[in-house]
Amino acid sequence: MAGVTPINLVEHALLVSIQDDITDTEILELQDRLSTKISENRIDGVILDISALEIVDTFVGRVIAQLAGISRLLAADTYVVGMRPTVAVTLVELGMYLPEIRTALSLTHALAQLRRV
Amino acid sequence: MAGVTPINLVEHALLVSIQDDITDTEILELQDRLSTKISENRIDGVILDISALEIVDTFVGRVIAQLAGISRLLAADTYVVGMRPTVAVTLVELGMYLPEIRTALSLTHALAQLRRV
């Protein structure tokens, strides 16, 4: 079994680093932990770092979409950082345009955009 | 086989001139090249010049939508320039409203809007 997905507080945002080998069970656990943390800490934004992902499939695409959906319902904006070019191409080819999320070039850019909100 | 679709750097944007006779293979190659260029050069915007297109079908419509989707996931805004009136009419008639893209009258207008972001 792989480790627990880390969730770190950075300014008023939660940084979630999605691992390459995330499993179904871990995602359910991550959704619970993330949603609790968002409401407890009155978080403005969630930053999903997906730089560890070299390949995506519909499963991972759905994970990203679901985490973004949960965050939005709890009034937090979601930014995705560290997306590789091939990952973007694959997601779009799979028909997953992820309209709920905003992307940022880096963590610094995402934090700068969250400060502006 | 037709030539390679040119991608040119203009200010902080990439100018892509879509050719009339673009094929499936060329599109895959274009997606790869464009996505790599966006992330390598930290591009703010992508400008799709479609003035060469006199007729569109769902295939070309999907190409435009996919290129815009990839750019957005990589944090670049997409502007379409040079759209002919008949092309706009056809796209809407095909039900392709292309919500992801912004249109600009000309390259000059698109660059002006990108500078403002």
Written overview of the protein:
Two copies of one chain form a homodimer. Chain A has helices at residues 24-41, 58-73, 85-93, 107-116; strands at 7-10, 13-17, 45-49, 77-81, 102-104. In chain A, helix 1 (24-41) packs parallel to helix 2 (58-73). In chain A, 38% of the residues are buried. In chain A, strand 4, helix 3 and strand 5 form a beta-alpha-beta unit. The first copy, chain A, has one domain (7-116): Transcription Regulator spoIIAA. The model of chain A has no long low-confidence stretch (mean pLDDT 90). Chain A has 117 residues and is an alpha/beta fold. Chain A has a five-stranded mixed β-sheet. Chain A contains four helices and five strands; from the N terminus they run ββαβαβαβα. Helices cover 45% and strands 19% of the residues of chain A. The A-B interface holds A 80, 83-89, 91-93, 97-98, 102-105, 109 and B 31-32, 35-36, 38-39, 42, 66, 69-70, 72-75, 100. Chains A, B: This is Negative regulator of sigma-B (Antagonist protein rsbS). Chains A, B: It comes from Sulfitobacter indolifex HEL-45. Chains A, B: Residues 3-114 form the STAS domain.
Strand runs of chain A, count: 5
Mean pLDDT of chain A: 90
Task: Report how far apart the termini of chain A are.
Answer: 38 Å
Q: Any idea what the shape of chain A is?
A: globular
Q: What's the assembly state of these chains?
A: homodimer
The neighbouring-strand order within the major sheet of chain A is: 1-2-3-4-5
**In angstroms, what is the radius of gyration of chain A?**
13 Å
**CATH homologous superfamily grouping of chain A:** STAS domain
Q: Which sequence of SSEs, written as H and E, runs from N to C of chain A?
A: EEHEHEHEH
Number of discrete helical segments of chain A: 4
CATH topology grouping of chain A:
Transcription Regulator spoIIAA
Question: How many separate domains make up the residues of chain A?
Answer: 1
- Extract low-pLDDT stretches of chain A: none
Helix content of chain A: 40-55%
Largest interface: A-B, 18 and 15 residues
Instruction: Assign the structural class of chain A, choosing from mainly alpha, mainly beta, alpha/beta, alpha+beta, or little secondary structure.
Output: alpha/beta
Beta-strand proportion of chain A: 15-25%
Summarize the biggest pleated sheet of chain A: 5 strands, mixed
CATH architecture of chain A: 2-Layer Sandwich
CATH class of chain A: Alpha Beta
InterPro entries (chains A, B): Bact_StressResp_Reg (IPR051932), STAS_dom (IPR002645), STAS_dom_sf (IPR036513)
Protein name (chains A, B): Negative regulator of sigma-B (Antagonist protein rsbS)
Organism (chains A, B): Sulfitobacter indolifex HEL-45
Domain STAS (chains A, B): 3-114
